[in-house]
Specification:
CATH class of the largest domain: Alpha Beta
Helix content: 40-55%
CATH superfamily of the largest domain: NADP-dependent oxidoreductase domain
Largest sheet: 8 strands, parallel, barrel
Number of strands: 10
Radius of gyration: 20 Å
CATH architecture of the largest domain: Alpha-Beta Barrel
CATH topology of the largest domain: TIM Barrel
Structural class: alpha/beta
Distance between the termini: 53 Å
Shape: globular
């Protein structure tokens, strides 16, 4: 395992995100398969991963419980835990923090974050008193490092970083967002502030592991023995100032592939970077909705729609033909795109700021044809 120096800590460059643990079936709210999830965490620890990231809302709160049960079998100083205050889920930050410690069965959280800061929430996070309270907890030793996860504009990031000195920032960073969104600008701002960067969504919620044939071709031709995910992981892991790259590993096969990539990590050559740019350019032209399958929207949808599944089908129709939408006809009518009431509640919780009702309307119209 490769490690990075973070202040006085030695962090594994590859961290495990506990948002996509093994579960019974697809979709929001399905129970975690505890034996498999704990075995996966044990395997990651054995392979040298020592950074585990969770949040109050992951797996409906079950992620924190599972992680606590899995890690309590190991010495407390052999791992680091990152957890997050989710303002939209429970505004009472004191209550949420105490609940998290109980779920984790721990007396401290090593890396604590304000969760999913974006333009619509930045002012609330800065003014609702949570930062002052968490600084008190840091002084008391119940939090070791304080930061935030970010999904907003450059302007919102500047507002956050100008507010105070942060120990670290977790940001969405992958080669698609680097070349076709504002990830490079956000990253460079954090570097200019000398703020350590933690990376989430390095494979864009699995999207970059499932490129369409045309986009995948240059990468597979250059290295047929390497997974598409490994290219994405190498891109971010080689950037200066990266403390941890999180991967939401759902099974041991994914973990083994990620571990092999990090353990054999080598800088990208100019030719390899050119191939990544080519793949990103091709793939970007086919993407309709850059959903990362975080499912933050799902629990708040009054219609109970499986929004990530619907959006992934939408993307599939863009790359493989509109006829692929027909698979949605197998769903109950009240779970199809036409059931969307355009209330826009989902948009409030979408870190990607997707105009989800527009995609639903388009699918509903195409399904009528």
């Amino acid at each position: 395992m490769k490690y990075t120096n973070f202040k006085d800590e030695k962090l594994s460059l590859l961290g495990m995100g506990a948002m996509r643990l093994p579960q019974k079936g697809e979709g929001w709210g399905m129970p975690i398969i505890h034996d498999e999830a704990e075995a996966l965490i044990d395997f990651c620890l054995e392979q040298g991963i020592n950074y585990f990231d969770t949040a109050y809302i992951y797996h409906g709160g079950e992620s924190e419980v599972l992680l606590g049960n899995a890690l309590k079998k190991h010495p407390r100083d052999s791992f680091y835990v990152a957890d997050k205050y989710s303002m939209n889920a429970e505004p009472d930050y004191k209550l949420q923090f105490e609940t998290q410690l109980k779920r984790l069965q721990m007396d401290r959280i090593d890396f604590y974050l304000l969760h999913a800061v974006q333009d619509t929430t930045v002012d609330q996070y800065l003014t609702n008193g949570c930062i002052e309270y968490f600084l008190e907890q840091r002084a008391a030793g119940r939090i070791k490092y304080l930061g935030f996860s970010f999904h907003g504009s450059p302007e919102a990031l500047v507002k956050m970083t100008n507010h105070r000195d942060w120990d670290f920032v977790l940001m969405q960073l992958n080669y698609l967002d680097w070349f076709h969104n504002n990830a490079k600008e956000l990253y460079e701002h954090l570097r200019s502030k000398n703020i350590p960067v933690m990376v989430m969504e390095p494979i864009h919620g699995g999207l970059l592991a499932k490129l369409n044939d045309e986009a995948a071709a240059p990468l597979l031709e250059a290295a047929p023995e390497k997974s598409l995910a490994s290219w994405a992981l190498r891109f971010v892991a080689n950037l200066p100032g990266i403390a941890v790259v999180l991967s939401g590993m759902s099974n041991q096969e994914q973990a083994e592939d990620n571990l092999a990539t990090i353990k054999a990590l080598a800088p990208l050559t100019s030719d390899e970077e050119a191939l990544i740019i080519k793949a990103a350019d091709i793939f970007n032209k086919t993407i309709g909705a850059t959903c990362t399958d975080c499912k933050y929207c799902v629990e708040h949808c009054p219609q109970g729609l499986n929004i990530p599944y619907l959006l992934h089908t939408y993307n599939s129709s863009k790359t493989g033909g509109i006829w692929r939408l027909n698979r949605l006809k197998a769903l109950p009518e009240d779970k199809q795109p036409a059931a969307c009431i355009s209330c826009n509640v989902c948009m409030k919780y979408c870190p990607q700021n997707l105009e989800i009702p527009k995609f639903m309307d388009e699918m509903a119209e195409n399904l009528k044809a």
